[in-house]
Amino acid sequence: MEDLLPLLIQLVSGAVGGNLAGSMFKDLSLGKIGNSIVGILGGGLGGQLLGMLGLASEAGSMDLAGIVSSIAGGGVGGGVLLAIVGLIKKAMNK
Question: What is the pTM (predicted TM-score) of this model?
Answer without folding.
Answer: 0.85
